[in-house]
Design brief:
The protein has helices at 45-52, 74-80, 96-106, 112-122, 138-149, 168-183, 195-201, 219-223, 240-247, and strands spanning 5-16, 19-30, 34-38, 60-65, 68-69, 81-84, 156-160, 187-192, 204-209, 212-217. The chain is an alpha/beta fold. It has a single domain (5-247), classed as 3-Layer(aba) Sandwich (Rossmann fold), CATH 3.40.50.300. A 6-stranded mixed beta sheet has the order 6-7-8-3-9-10, sandwiched between helices. α3 crosses α4 (112-122). The longest helix has 16 residues, at 168-183.
Amino acid sequence: MTTTPAIEIAGLTKSFGDTAVLHGVDLTVPAGSVVALLGSNGAGKTTTVRILSTLLRPDGGTATVNGHDVTTHPEEVRRSISLTGQFAAVDEILTGRENLVLIAELRRATDPTQVATALLTQFGLDEAGDRRVSTYSGGMRRRLDIAMSLIGDPAILFLDEPSTGLDPQARLEVWRTVRELAGRGTTVLLTTQYLEEAEHLADHIAILHEGRIIVEGTLAELKALLPSPTVEYVEKQPTLEEIFLAVIGHDATGTNATSTEGSPS
């Protein structure tokens, strides 16, 4: 991990007409880390990501991505990043392999077919690679979407609400993918309104509320902001998510759960 921040934001502001969305956002994302931008709907998460990915111009403040200013050097920023939006940007008529080859060709990869094959293997889509994407589950589409984002080896990946609309099993698949990316040193900035998602994935959490970062830190640092908990002994009941995953035969890590108890002899 380098000492130069992958993303640095200072005093970022943005309004749409008379509606102010960002009121002076400050945030630093260390290279090679996973940072979660946490906030409710309308907090300004997507607007921040759109500015960082050069899709919007800020009204004020500064933002640099991989050392490049998003306003004065947008082309350099675009070469450094990839963006996965709230909804999978895949072509349902094409197969998974064809989607990947198409993006590899657009990004002028040396061997688009080899790139597609490697990514299908990396994201566990080998068997589905030659099927039309219209037959994919939500989790498979999201994994394919993220795989397409990685073509060209971007230094920084923006994930805007990566698990929106996914069922619990598909969400766990996406979480596992993000962890693997972080393990290889990719810088990930993800926006989410799901507290559990930030808790599971992020090295650093920033809470955006009404257009401002009101608190940031590691999960341990954020927990320390609250009074020490009192210890009570209560009977732990399974959550609905745990029940759902157990019933369909998956454990909390997203792997198949098997049991020999009660099996016929």
